[in-house]
Specification:
Radius of gyration: 16 Å
Helix content: 55-70%
Order of helices and strands: HEEHHHHH
Number of strands: 2
Mean pLDDT: 91
Number of helices: 6
Largest sheet: 2 strands, antiparallel
Structural class: mainly alpha
Strand order of the largest sheet: 1-2
Strand content: under 5%
Low-confidence stretches: none
């Protein structure tokens, strides 16, 4: 994958994710949907990873490597995700949605300013996993959840 394809996929999958999120009734965001997470929790989760991607890109822009979230061997990604979801659970949905949109806009703006050669190897893998692939993964989960609601209601 090259830089233009990365940017195209980020845009394409972001639009599809936001479109799917927009099809969810506002009253459904607090309902349990994914292994104990609500759709609101999912918004907070995606925001966390948008913000981490932004931190990574800011580091790269300064010629530095991105510091891993945690270097403790006992640390797990699942525990981190659960901790972040819990931390954001009390935040109102409208605030989470605003934070999500703002983080994404800052990320895309910064990506557009850096030379394409910045995004290769591990950097490209990080952005793929934390952006377009992440949106696609969770969009699919939302779509399946919405389909289940249609057939059970």
């Amino acid at each position: 994958m090259d830089y233009p394809e990365l940017m195209q996929l980020i845009d394409q999958e972001w639009v599809a994710f936001i479109h799917t999120l927009g099809s969810v009734p506002i009253t459904a965001f607090d309902q349990p949907a994914f292994d104990g997470w609500s759709l609101k929790d999912l918004v907070g989760h995606i925001t966390t990873w948008e913000e981490d991607s932004l931190r990574a890109v800011l580091s790269w822009a300064q010629g530095q490597d991105h510091t891993p979230l945690n270097t403790d061997p006992a640390w797990t990604l699942d525990a981190f995700n659960a901790e972040q979801v819990e931390r954001k659970r009390a935040v109102p949905l409208v605030v989470l949605l605003n934070e999500l949109g703002a983080a994404h806009a800052r990320l895309v703006s910064l990506l557009a300013l850096l030379p394409p050669a910045t995004f290769t190897g591990d950097r490209l893998d990080k952005l793929t996993g934390d952006t377009w692939h992440h949106y696609k993964e969770h969009r699919g989960a939302i779509e399946r959840w919405l389909a289940d609601q249609d057939t059970s209601g």
